[in-house]
Every structure is written in C-alpha cells, then in structure tokens.
Design goal:
By secondary structure, the protein is mostly helical. The chain has 4 helices and 2 strands, in the order αββααα. It has one domain (about 35-118). The termini are far apart. About 55% of the residues lie in helices and about 10% in strands. Helix 2 packs across helix 4 and helix 3 (about 80-90) runs antiparallel to helix 4. It has a two-stranded antiparallel ribbon. It has helices spanning about 1-20, 45-65, 80-90, 100-115, and strands spanning about 30, 35-40.
Length: about 120
C-alpha cells in the first residue's frame, strides 16, 4: 500500500512539473556583486550581456587588463573581440573560478548578433 501511495505521489509530481511552462524566458535576474545585491528587470539583449560582462569579465579585467572595463557605453565596439576570445579561441573567461553558463553564452551571442548591421 505504501509503495502504491509513493508511486501515485511521484507520478503526480512528475505531471505537475511537466505541466508548468518552463520555456518562458526569464525576465528577472539577480546578480550579486561583492559590494551589493541587485535584483531588477533587464529588458534588452545588450543589458543582459552587460550584466554578464560586469559579473564575469570586469572582475578580472579591472585587475589584470590595462584596457578599461566594459560599460554600457563602451561595450559595442568590443563585440568582435568578445566573440573571438569567447567563442572562437575559447580563451575567456580565464581560469577555473569563473565559468559561463550555457544561457550566458547564448545571451552574449544574442547581443553580438544584434550589433551586426544587415
């Protein structure tokens, strides 16, 4: 009897999980910096990409690279370099501490393709 109840609960949970729309795009991101916690809605692919550059790239670039860190104002001219270093040469991000998640690669690629003029 207990096995039957466990089976029914497991099936119910599986069906419930499958019934939710998990393909809805995420509209709100929460980013934690070493100084503060920010939670807000991000609307454009550029803003999403900037948050990735801010959290995953500027950390090292501000310490080790002589080049200025990425900002919303200066990031578009660097899109070709970001593409080469991240997607072609796979040199960035360096080290084992900072990794990009699959969705972060996709967000960067979306921003890069949105800067291309047809």
């Amino acid at each position: 009897m207990i096995i039957l109840v466990k089976l029914i609960v497991q099936i119910s949970l599986t069906l419930l999980a499958e019934s939710t729309d998990s393909h809805e795009p995420i509209k709100e991101y929460a980013f934690i910096s070493k100084h503060s916690y920010k939670s807000y809605t991000i609307d454009t692919s550029k803003e999403k990409a900037f948050q990735i550059l801010e959290n995953k790239c500027n950390v090292c670039h501000s310490k080790r690279n002589k080049r200025p860190v990425f900002t919303l104002d200066n990031m578009d001219p660097w899109e070709d370099d970001v593409y080469k270093q991240v997607f072609i040469k796979k040199r960035m991000p360096k080290g084992k501490k900072i990794k990009l998640a699959t969705f972060e690669y996709q967000e960067l690629l979306t921003w890069i393709t949105s800067t291309k003029k047809i």
